[in-house]
Amino acid sequence: MATPKIVLFYVFTPLPDPEAIRLWQQAAGESTGVTGRVIVSPHGINATVGGDISAVKQYVRATKRYAPFAGADIKWSEGTGSDFPRLSVKTRPEIVTFGVPGELEVDENGVVGGGTRLTPEQLHELVADKGDDVVFFDGRNAIEAQVGRFKNAVVPPADTTRDFVPLLDSGAFDDLKDRTVVTYCTGGVRCEVLTRLMKARGFGDVYQLDGGIARYGETFGDDGLWEGSMFVFDDRMTVDFSDHTEVIGRCSECGAPTSHIENYPDRLGRELRVVCPECVPPERASTADAVPASS
């Protein structure tokens, strides 16, 4: 019996020849039969792939044979067997598109000048010590926070990752520059860059949740500081961490509680929105092809 799994990982490390890494990753993915998305840039690799557990394990072993990727933090989750329509391996200037590749510096240890990493347990210790002085800062697209977020988090009005730099430069969050700020995102990759950008703009006490929401959910489930579901960039759309996940999303059509997200343009033309299945005509139901890359 097939056991579908999905793995999420990234590594920031200098890659002198991203195209060579792309070709190797394409071959590794095709030979093992996994599907998903892999982004390679001069700064490293960012991947989410899925398939039967044996295929995924073979792909992970092949990837870790390359010395700079040997220490990759692999985050596992349950799949459905049809989470991605195909394997896509691309090269880009950034592995997460903030639009400022020249601002990022990486070495063999990762991003240079980023925020302090916190394990889920260390996050709880920080909150216990500093209480309300800790500000959670969501490093994802705003749509993702509609169905799940940390309690009382600041959620920037970002439609894509490219929106963060203009928002930071606008001064909209200058009141947080003297606060203790903990950034978080799905698996940690966006906050690796975001904390670097924030520190370069005068934010003094900046942390990042190591392993992101995915690792926090593995550790504390729904019995900690997280509320709701985690949005994911595959056909599952959302992941719950327990059998008692709180539903905090509201349908954009009828207002009913829901954590369901569809590729169903709203009145403002935005492709993704929170909408209960009953409010989506069958012919407009989402397909995996329409799920955007993690931008």
Automatic annotation (TrEMBL):
Kindly give the SMART domains that the UniProt entry links to this protein: RHOD
**Catalytic reactions on record:** uridine(34) in tRNA + AH2 + O2 = 5-hydroxyuridine(34) in tRNA + A + H2O
From the Swiss-Prot or TrEMBL record, what is one GO molecular function term? Answer: oxidoreductase activity, acting on paired donors, with incorporation or reduction of molecular oxygen
Q: Does the keyword Oxidoreductase apply?
A: yes
Q: Where is the Rhodanese domain?
A: 130-225
Give the matching InterPro entries: Rhodanese-like_dom, Rhodanese-like_dom_sf, Rhodanese_C, TrhO, TRHO_N
Q: What EC number(s) does its UniProt record assign?
A: 1.14.-.-
Enzyme class at the top of the EC tree: oxidoreductase
Which biological processes are named by the entry's GO terms? tRNA modification
- Which keywords, in A-to-Z order, does the entry hold? Oxidoreductase, tRNA processing
List, alphabetically, the PROSITE patterns matched: RHODANESE_3 (PS50206)
**tRNA processing keyword on record:** yes
Q: Which HAMAP family match?
A: TrhO
Family label: Belongs to the TrhO family.
**What does this protein do, in the record's words?**
Catalyzes oxygen-dependent 5-hydroxyuridine (ho5U) modification at position 34 in tRNAs.
Q: What is this protein's name?
A: tRNA uridine(34) hydroxylase
